[in-house]
């Protein structure tokens, strides 16, 4: 008996020394606030952010983005300021995830996993039909910058064709490119500009970090410089795909400094 029990107990002890692969993930419930951002929803689901998605202060979000995906603090701080701009209260110091659904604040048309507001007010939930179009541009187990840009450009083309109120303004176009860039940065190989498709699908579909699939956060802090570089690579590819008439690239507004390529 002993000889069997000892290895079993040792194994159990070994396991409990490591965090659960689920990292405390729990689906959102009826009272929880969620957003059009799959990452912030995932962070609330895991408990890096309050599970109810409400009253998020600067340190909470900056710590969460560092702990979960190794974003550097200056970049996260800018995200936080952007988020505050969606709160309909003067001089707000905290935001809740549902504030982010405000149309054309940070939210924009032609999203990868949400229908345009013209089609649905439910910006806080994943939409399988929209994401099916996005995934259709990823034929291989590894997504390249070109394929990621094709999905982004494809959604712009579809939205432009089907939504009579379609708008991708001067903030929306770079935001769209940045959101494509940032999933490559968070889940992929920053130098190569590639990312495993199953990680990205798991992330979008479940609003969950892909620990179970062997993902680990970046070993180095991700900065705005990384975002600018990757957005530029995505922009170059999507401009080529959309053609001169619909340039989404950084050239869309020479006055708009690159540092404003936040989500
Ligand atoms: C405080 C930080 C952040 C804020 C306030 C924020 C906010 C938003 C908002 C409002 C959207 C909706 C835009 C739209 O599609 O209409 C969005 C989309 C998105 N965000 Fe975030 N975000 C943050 C950080 C991040 C980070 C660090 C990632 C890294 C993976 C990320 C990934 C995405 C992706 C991939 C989308 C596109 C979703 C889609 O097109 O369906 N976000 N974000
Ligand atoms: C918000 O801040 C501005 C500038 O500091 C100040 O003038 C204004 O009174 C504040 N508004 C409220 C409602 O606190
Ligand atoms: C939307 O379609 C119109 C007409 O085909 C085109 O001129 C315009 O550039 C398109 N906009 C985008 C952002 O693709
Ligand atoms: Mg949107």
TrEMBL record:
Q: What superkingdom heads the lineage?
A: Eukaryota
List UniProt keywords, sorted A-Z. Heme, Iron, Metal-binding, Oxidoreductase, Peroxidase, Signal
Q: Which residues form the Heme haloperoxidase family profile domain?
A: 21-232
InterPro entries registered for this protein in UniProt: Chloroperoxidase (IPR000028), Chloroperoxidase-like_sf (IPR036851)
A molecular function GO annotation = metal ion binding
- Pfam family for this entry, one: Peroxidase_2
User: Required cofactors, per record?
Assistant: heme b
Q: Where is the signal peptide?
A: 1-17
- Family stated for the protein in its record: Belongs to the chloroperoxidase family.
Name of the protein in its database record: Cloroperoxidase
Q: Which organism is it from?
A: Apiospora kogelbergensis
